[in-house]
């Protein structure tokens, strides 16, 4: 039984309407920007306009979808097919569909009950198969290459934007489709900003540089953070902060395996910070999140992460400490959950790297 049919049976629905980009890509294989799909109990239809006839047919056929070309009459064709297949209960992407879209379809699809199905769609995407895992491994490898090459070119006076551009450029050169999110490069006092997207600030001697970046490889994401020190005059407080984050991440690693509850890993790291100077107040975000087609997916290692981790799920472990107005440190890696532990996908050096100014 395919994943779509399992959702139909679980929710007792007659069909499922796919409109979200990532859910469409996951279930149908379509990578274009325009299209919808309807999964019935005994067949699956994909709809798009003349621009995607060849692409959509080629990409969705292996997943047993029949292609239908539509134009401005698309909504009428959807409704016609729903009626022909006697659909009374229709599952929809409630976690991504806008209110305006929902109201439009609700008005057009007369006599059909809309059943939220977004959560089940996301649940289906949590556990990755071997093909997905290979793409995730490659995405992580590409980001590792980008980090290794970028730290070679960092020099005094260059901007955070220049560093970000180089990270993204090297990823593209090595096969990435795109970046997986807006690249973060935050140096000096800006390193205390957890989401300090690259700015025009120039790199100065003797300051931290936080680089949080990732790529998409054949649609699948990586997400890595490294904090380096530019200079050779690091203070004891700065070194201690880095060591504390490093040790916290190592603790998180040691706990990750199938059956562990996400919030327990998150709490253990917070306890460690508090046992070493009451520092958890400087750690404001969650410890980790899953990823795949999207860079943030379920499940989570956070205060709200109540579910047990399962083999072949992905998880980031990314503790950070941020001293407002001074500096901050974050280290993040990508892990594949296994029955006995984890496989570390990102391989970049975790120990503090000191970059000597030229």
TrEMBL record:
UniProt-recorded name of the protein: Peptidase M24
Domain Creatinase N-terminal span(s) in chain numbering: 3-127
Pfam families (UniProt xref): Creatinase_N, Peptidase_M24
Domain Peptidase M24 residues, every copy: 134-339
CDD domains (alphabetical): APP-like
Transmembrane spans: none
């Amino acid at each position: 039984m395919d994943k779509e049919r399992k959702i139909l049976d679980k929710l007792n629905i007659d069909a499922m309407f796919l409109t979200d980009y990532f859910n469409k890509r996951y279930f149908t294989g379509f990578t274009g920007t325009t299209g919808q799909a309807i999964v019935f109990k005994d067949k699956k239809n994909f709809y798009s306009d003349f621009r995607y006839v060849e692409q959509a047919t080629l990409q969705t056929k292996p997943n047993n979808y029949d292609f239908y070309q539509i134009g401005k009459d698309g909504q009428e064709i959807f409704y016609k097919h729903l009626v022909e297949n006697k659909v009374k209960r229709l599952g929809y992407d409630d976690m991504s569909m806008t209110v305006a879209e929902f109201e439009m379809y609700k008005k057009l699809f007369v006599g059909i009950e809309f059943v939220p199905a977004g959560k089940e769609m996301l649940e289906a995407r949590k556990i990755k198969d071997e093909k997905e895992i290979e793409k995730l491994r490659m995405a992580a490898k590409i980001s590792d290459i980008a980090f290794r090459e970028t730290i070679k070119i960092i020099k005094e006076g260059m901007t955070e934007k220049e560093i970000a551009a180089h990270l993204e450029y090297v990823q593209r050169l090595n096969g990435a489709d795109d970046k997986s999110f807006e690249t973060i490069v935050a140096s000096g006092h800006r390193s205390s900003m957890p989401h300090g997207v690259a700015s025009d600030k120039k790199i100065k001697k003797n300051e931290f540089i936080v680089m949080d970046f990732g790529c998409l490889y054949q649609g699948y994401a990586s997400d890595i953070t490294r904090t380096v020190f530019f200079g050779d005059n690091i203070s004891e407080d700065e070194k201690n902060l880095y060591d504390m984050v490093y040790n916290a991440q190592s603790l998180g690693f040691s706990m990750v395996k199938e059956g562990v509850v996400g919030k327990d890993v998150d709490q253990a790291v917070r306890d460690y910070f508090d046992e070493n100077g009451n520092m958890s107040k400087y750690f404001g975000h969650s410890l980790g999140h899953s990823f795949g087609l999207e860079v943030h997916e379920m499940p989570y290692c956070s205060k709200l992460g109540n579910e047990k981790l399962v083999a072949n799920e992905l998880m980031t472990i990314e503790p950070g400490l941020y001293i407002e107005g001074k500096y901050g440190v974050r280290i993040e890696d990508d892990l594949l959950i296994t029955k006995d532990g984890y496989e570390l996908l990102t391989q970049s050096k975790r120990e503090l790297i000191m970059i000597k100014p030229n």
